[in-house]
Amino acid sequence: MIEVKKSELSDGEFNRGVFATKDIKKGQLIHSAPVLPYPNEQDILIEHTVLSDYVYEYGINHGAIVLGYGMLFNHSYTPNATYDINFDTHTFDYYAYTDIKAGEEILINYNGDVDDKEPLWFNKEQGTEKEE
């Protein structure tokens, strides 16, 4: 149902994103990504690695490294997908927020809420609020 391909939205050497290989209906589960939780005290270590831009908040006391396709979804302030944290199964479950056509890139709002327009950490550092 999904595949990783080159994305025009992603900067950098790897510029990848997650794309639909077939039509996906609104509300349909797209991907269930397992997580590796870690205590917040370890953020200071992760901040010095390439993982710093890819970790998620995981409750009050933990962060999480999301496996599977979870790290490869790109950001949009008008996403076509959203995610829920499932603490029982230790997964991030990605769902279609709108109907998604085959070939479309699947996008989430990195702020966690589809309507949250707050500038992201990488835009704050650059002093920009680029809308994607």
From TrEMBL:
List the Pfam families hit by this protein, alphabetically: SET
> Which top-level group of life is the source organism from?
Bacteria
The cross-references to SUPFAM superfamilies, in alphabetical order and at most eight, read: SET domain
InterPro entries, alphabetized: SET7_MeTrfase (IPR009207), SET_dom (IPR001214), SET_dom_sf (IPR046341)
Q: Provide the SET domain boundaries.
A: 1-111
Coiled-coil parts of chain: none
Which Gene Ontology terms cover its molecular function?
histone H3K37 methyltransferase activity
Name of the protein in question:
SET domain-containing protein
Species this protein is from: Halalkalibacter alkaliphilus
